[in-house]
Amino acid sequence: MTRKQAAVSFTDGLGRKGTLPALPRRIVSLVPSQTELLADLGLEEAVVGVTRFCVHPPGWKVEKQIVGGTKNVRLDRVEALAPDLVLANVEENTRADVEALEKITLVYVTDVKDVPDALAMIRTVGNLTGRAEAAEKIAAEIEVGFGVLPAFKVRRAVYLIWRRPFMTVGGDTFIHDVMARGGLVNIFGERTRYPEVTPEELAAARPEVVLLSSEPYPFQEKHFDELRGWLPGTPLRLVDGELFSWYGSRLRRTPPYLRTLRADLG
Fold first, then answer.
1. Pair type for strands 17-20 and 8-11
2. Whole-number pLDDT of residue 250
3. Is 133 helix (H, G, I), strand (E, B) or coil?
4. What is the CATH number of the domain that holds 218?
5. Which residue, 76, 166, 179, 208, is the most exposed by fewest CB within 10 angstroms?
6. Cβ(168)–Cβ(146) under 8 Å?
7. Quick check: helix, strand or coil at residue 124?
8. Which H helix or E strand runs over 160?
């Protein structure tokens, strides 16, 4: 690929208009799912910094500079890397960090609430980094995968992301949209963001299935017993949180995963 590119104009997730004057040669990613996207776009040489939560691809945590966490970015480390582009996200990074980083370099902030948003983000990142063709291929594969999912039998579901206290997902989250595409109606969809729910509320909601995510809380089968006390007879399933919440190139794996999950649940 040529290292030359005309200036690219964009509007980011905060509604801000900007222009990337040239192909970025030094990129810092503050979003795990977008870090993996950059890898799948073939940008290993260009990416110089990632967060400690950027676990895919696994080798990058050793090869790249760790610039802190998603919520506590080490601004000094980012500045020392002299990036010409930082990728951030409305939900995963703080507004204070974004504003501080803007004084250092160009920051492109994404806001991904559903699968269409994810497809648009993938295509925009491809345009910004000179990988438009590769990004389009990834986006098209994801689009087709979700497009051919069958009309699953509707099941009323609760998706738990935390315990002590239990926390679930509201109707304005990416996870809510992915659930819906798998025929899983989010019982707490009328709430917003990531609300706490009591065991009594879980019992009163009478879900047909409870999904326990692998992240951010690492649920395991040993946690089933405490839930069975409140939800006797309700199916409990451990699910791969990355396949419900990562909105980058990993989404290619989500449609077949939903098929397998629904074959299990019926």
1. antiparallel
2. 98
3. helix
4. 3.40.50.1980
5. 76
6. no
7. helix
8. strand 155-160
The one-letter amino acid at 122: I
**What burial class does residue 148 get, using C-beta atoms within 10 Å of its C-beta: 0-12 exposed, 13-18 middle, 19+ buried?**
exposed
Q: Which residue range(s) make up the domain with 134?
A: 8-145
Question: pLDDT digit string (tens) for 136-191?
Answer: 999 999 999 999 999 999 999 999 999 999 999 999 999 999 999 999 999 999 99
* pTM, rounded to two decimals: 0.94
Report CA-CA distances (Å) from 128 to 64, 110, 122, 229, 253. 21, 13, 10, 51, 24
Q: Is residue 1 part of a domain?
A: no
Rounded (5°) CA angle 147-149-154: 125
How many other CB atoms sit within 10 Å of the CB of residue 99? 10
Question: Position 217: which residue type?
Answer: Y
Calpha distance 266→249 (Å, rounded): 28
Q: For 208-232, give one letter per residue: b (16+ CB within 10 A) or e.
A: bbbbbbbbebebeeebbeebeebbe
**pLDDT tens digits, one per residue of 65-124:** 999 999 999 999 999 999 999 999 999 999 999 999 999 999 999 999 999 999 999 999
The two structure tokens encoding residue 175 = 């996870």
DSSP code at position 222: G
